[in-house]
Design brief:
About 30% of the residues are buried. Strands 1, 2, 3, 5, 6, 8 and 9 form a seven-stranded mixed sheet that branches. Strands 4-7 form a two-stranded antiparallel ribbon. The protein has about 200 residues and is α+β, with helices and mostly antiparallel strands. About 25% of the residues lie in helices and about 25% in strands.
């Protein structure tokens, strides 16, 4: 079912965006609507080819010191994990609401209150591969009532952003992480900082 209209979705292959488990947890709880991305080591640049997708939590590279202190205890269960499991529940589904190219430290500073990453780590992401922008992506997120479980294979591993999912996987019953009004307020907060949507990355 389409998360907003309730109509049956077309039987197209589903994809998942790999993101730190702690960030997936924060998005699923409605603690943030924003992710900051610049692609994996094996990618030339970050792209947004899919308007909606599952969130694929990863654990191997996340570290507590890269999350703001006030969030470390709240998300301790996610931060304590270090190994990516062989059978991975996909707990959330997301749809892109807006995307913005962040090229200046001043823009990143203005976004600091909208995500759980430490300012130093966010700045490190901005500096890495400096000729490419850091993408700030606002997501509408739903928690899946019965998360599908992915059998993780070698094709799902590595430092990449996107993975294709088996045909049988499709979102079912889900609960919005935020009410319509709360999400609209969060999106407006992001837009007020960055002003104009930059569109999807190319």
């Amino acid at each position: 079912m389409h998360p907003e209209t309730g109509s049956t979705m077309r039987p197209v292959p589903e994809h998942a965006l790999k993101e730190w488990g702690v960030t997936v947890h924060a998005l699923s709880r409605g603690d943030q609507v924003l992710i900051l991305r610049k692609g994996g080591i094996g990618e030339k640049r970050f792209e947004l080819p899919h308007p909606r997708f599952f969130l694929f939590p990863t654990y191997a590279h996340q570290r507590p010191e890269l999350v703001k202190p006030e969030f470390r205890s709240r998300f301790a269960a996610s931060l304590d994990r270090r190994d990516d499991p062989e059978r991975l529940p996909l707990p959330a589904y997301a749809e892109i609401a807006a995307s913005f190219a962040v090229t200046e430290q001043s823009q990143l500073d203005a976004l600091d209150h909208l995500h759980i990453l430490t300012p130093d780590y966010a700045a490190e992401r901005l500096r890495w591969r400096r000729k490419h922008p850091l993408w700030a992506v606002a997501l509408r997120v739903w928690r899946l009532d019965d998360p599908p479980v992915l059998e993780v294979t070698p094709e799902h591993l590595g430092c990449v952003s996107w993975v294709a999912l088996p045909d049988r996987m499709a979102p079912s019953a889900m609960t919005p992480a935020l009410s319509d009004d709360a999400f609209a307020a969060g999106l407006a907060d992001v837009q007020s900082v960055l002003q104009q949507p930059a569109g999807a990355a190319a």
